[in-house]
Amino acid sequence: MSDIETRAAPQPLNADGARKLSGYAVVFNSPTLIGTFTESIASGAWTNTGDDVLATWNHNPDNVLGRTRSGTLTLTVDSVGVRYDVDLPDTELGRSVHELVKRGDVYGSSFTFIADAEEWDYSGDIAHRTVTAMRVIELGPVHTPAYPDATVSARAIERGNMPNLDTAAARKAYADSQRAEQLAADIRAAEANGETRGADEKRTELDAHNGERAASLSAMKSPTETRAIGRKASAGDLLYAKLAEARNLTSAGTAGGFTPAEHSKNFVDLMAPSSVVLSSGVNRVATNASEWKTPVVTSDFTPAFVGELADLPTGGFAAGLLTVKPMKIATSEMLSSEFVNDSDGVSLNAVSKSMLRTLALGFDKQALTGTAGADAFAGIANTTGIQTLALTAEPTDLAPFAEAFGMLEDVSATPGVVVMNPTRWAQLLGLKDTTGRQLLSAGAGSGTDGVSRSILGVPVKVSPYVDANTILVYDASELYAVIRQDARFETSSDAGFFKDGIGARAIMRAAIAVPNAAAVVKMTIAAA
Questions:
Q1: How far apart are CA 522 and CA 528, in angstroms?
Q2: CA 252 to CA 501: how far, in whole Å?
Q3: Per residue in 453-466, is it b (16+ CB within 10 Å) or e — as a string?
Q4: CB 372, CB 381: distance < 8 Å
Q5: Which end of the chain has fewer beta carbons closer than 10 Å to its terminal beta carbon, N or C?
Q6: Which pLDDT band, with edges at 50, 70 and 90, does 243 fall under?
Q7: Of 471, 477, 481, 458, residue with least CA distance to 516
C-alpha cells in the first residue's frame, strides 16, 4: 500500500526580484521528534526519476505555483537535501506569495511524499524511523509549518492541533527537538548569506545543545515515561508505518491516536482483507458528515426519435434522495502493562491487527444481513426493494444462479459477486453433472481439477453471517460503504493508571447504502 505523507518546517525561503522562490524542501539525516518517535530521511532516499512534481501554496492543488513537467519548477539534490526553485506565475497568487516571502510572513516549506522503504530502530528509549526510499509528489511554501524542525518533522496542521505530550520528559524532548532544528535552520540561513562567523557560532551552540539533548533522552528510563513515549511508538510499527504519515494525535483523553481523520481510508484498507463486503468491490465513500445523501432514480427518462426542429421528449424521470447515517462500531480492551512492556510493545501490533479484523467481521455481519435499529443500519439482505428469488428445494444444478444473474441483467445491473454461507458453498461443491464430474471444478473437469471459487464466472465469497438458506447476488458497483473519516485505532495509559494497564480501542462509523435496490437479488431456499 502506498501511503501519502506530508512534512513541513520553517526552512529559510528566498524570493528575488525576478519573482522566483527557492529553498530546501527536504533536509537529509536530520533527526526530528514526531509526537512519540523520532524520524530522519536518509541522504539516498530520493528516488524521483522523471516524476512530475507539483509546487503549490499551502498544499492546495488549486493554488499551483509551478511544476517540473513544464520547467517552472526545478529540483536539485545535494548533500544537504532537496532544493526547489520555482518561477512564480504572473498571477495574483504568484505575486502575493512572492511578497509574503519577501516580507518574512511566510518562512516555511512543506512537501508531500510516498515512503517506499523505511527502517525502524527500537534500541533506544524512543523508537526511530529512517525513511530510506521516497518519492516526492508535491511541495511548496506554507504559512503555518507544523513544527520548527528540519522539514522531516511533521505536517502543516490546523492551529491548536499539536502533539499530545503527556509527560514532562516528553515535552522537554519535543522542545529540545524544536530548538535543535531551529539552530540548524539558522546555520543554513547564515551560510546562504555568507555569514561564516555567525554560522560557526550557531554550529557550536547546536553541538552543545545536541549533547545536552542526548543526555536528556538517555535519562528517560522510568516505566511511566517509557510507556508514554517509547511503547506507543512501538505500537505504531503497524499503523504509524502503514497509515498515511500526516497523522494527528488526538485529545488528551486518548494519548496516542494512530489514525488521523483525513486518512481513514488507510484504516479501512487494513480491514478490507477480512471483510467480505469491503473486498467484494463495493464503492467506498468517505464523509465528515453525520449523514450522507445520494440520489435514487425511481423512474428513468423516456427517450424517443424526433424530427428536425421538433420538440424534444420529456417526462418519465423521477428521483429522490437516500439518506445514510454511518453508525458506530467499536471494540476495546484493557491490557496489562506487563503484556505490552515484556514484548517491547510488539504485542500492540497483534492487538491492533486483531481489533481491525474484529471490526471488519462486525461490519460484515451488519452489512450483509443486519436489521435497522436505533444504533444500526439495514443490511443488504434487508434493504427495501431488492429482488427476491425463492427456491422450493436445495439446488441440484446451477440453473437458479443463472436465473438470478438474468434478473440483475434485466435491470441493467451486472452480477458481480455471490455471497453465501460456508455450509451452502460446501453443498454446492458436491454437485455433479450426469457423467459424475464436479460442476464447480475448474472447467467442470474431474475431481483432480482445482475448485473454481466462482459460479458461471461470477466470484463467490463465503461468510458465516449469511444463513445457509440465504444467498445474495449483487452488482458491487451499485452498492456503497459509507465511512466516517474519524475511523481510528488508539491506545492510552490514562484509563488504566490505577490498574497499571494500557487501554486499546478501535472505532469506525460506517453503513451500507443500496441506492439501486434492484441491483441485489436475495435467493432463499426453503428449509428441508
A1: 19
A2: 17
A3: eebeebbbbbbebb
A4: no
A5: C
A6: very low
A7: 477
* Other CB atoms within 10 Å distance of the CB of residue 467: 17
- Whether 133 and 119 have beta carbons less than 8 Å apart is answered as no
In whole angstroms, give the CA distance from residue 103 to residue 528. Answer: 82
Per-residue model confidence (pLDDT) at position 218: 40
Helix 347-369 vs helix 232-242: angle between axes, to the nearest 10 degrees?
A: 50
| Phi and psi, residue 512, nearest 5° | -105, 140
- Position of cell 426542429? 309
**Sequence-ordered list of residues with C-beta below 8 angstroms from that of 210, at least 6 positions apart, any chain:** 180
Cα 503 from Cα 494, distance rounded (Å) = 8
Q: Which residues contact 340 (CB under 8 A, 6 or more apart)?
A: 227, 231, 347, 348, 502
Q: Residue 314 in 3-state DSSP?
A: coil
DSSP state of 9: E
CA 23 distance to own-chain centroid:
30
Interatomic CA distance for residues 245 and 248, integer angstroms:
9
* DSSP output for 40-75: EE-TT-B--SS---EEEETTEEEEEEEEGGGTSEEE
Alpha carbon distance 126, 37 (integer Å): 5
3-state secondary structure of 481: strand
Q: Strand 520-525 to strand 470-474: parallel, antiparallel, or no bridges (unpaired)?
A: antiparallel
Segment 193-209, tens digit of pLDDT: 777 777 778 767 765 66
Q: Is 473 exposed, middle or buried (0-12, 13-18, 19+ CB in 10 A)?
A: buried
Q: Which three cell numbers stand for residue 345?
A: 510493545
Q: Give the three-class secondary structure for 494.
A: coil
Helix, strand, coil: what percent of the chain each, to 5?
A: 30, 30, 35
Distances (CA, A) of 375 to 256, 284, 293: 27, 21, 18
pLDDT given for residue 17 in this prediction: 63
Q: Are 503 and 332 in contact (CB under 8 A)?
A: yes
Q: Is residue 256 within 8 Å of residue 249, measured between CB atoms?
A: yes
